[in-house]
Amino acid sequence: MEAKVADILFERIQKEAMIAFVQKNDQNFSEAIDLVLGNQYPLSWRASWILGHAMKKNDGRIRPYVDKLIDLIEPAEHDGQQRELMKLLFKMKLDEEQEGKLFDICMNLWEKIGKTPSVRSTAFKFILDIIKKYPELKEEIAFVMEPQYIEPLSPGIQRSIKKQLAAINMKVVE
């Protein structure tokens, strides 16, 4: 009996072996997508993680599910699952409507100071990508660059964010 993607996600095998298994055929890849869309933690989180490593940039096999993936981010109960869903979507070419929806979600996640720093910094990366694409939005996001949003983050993430802001001629509002 051949193993299923759900089975290998709980085995102690090398990441490369998991990636190879998911890439082995379209059925395994589709099964991984179904597990992500099933939104059952920790299965969907692990499937998101492995899919992020197995997929190609702007992967056509994921394209039909982009809207559903965006819709899964906010209701996901676990921070790691939210982060992995965002990372999947960052590899996809989004249309303006999808970008707008994901931008709003990322802004909401960034503003939640109690969120895990890795989720907030992942959301911040997308916010910056959108600001680079649409510089007119800089003024609209200035309020979320206040110290209360930055200070809860680790010193390393703070430095990274300040450096990224400086690259687009913005800074933390003191």
From TrEMBL:
It comes from the Bacteria. InterPro entries: ARM-type_fold (IPR016024). This is HEAT repeat protein. It comes from Sediminitomix flava.
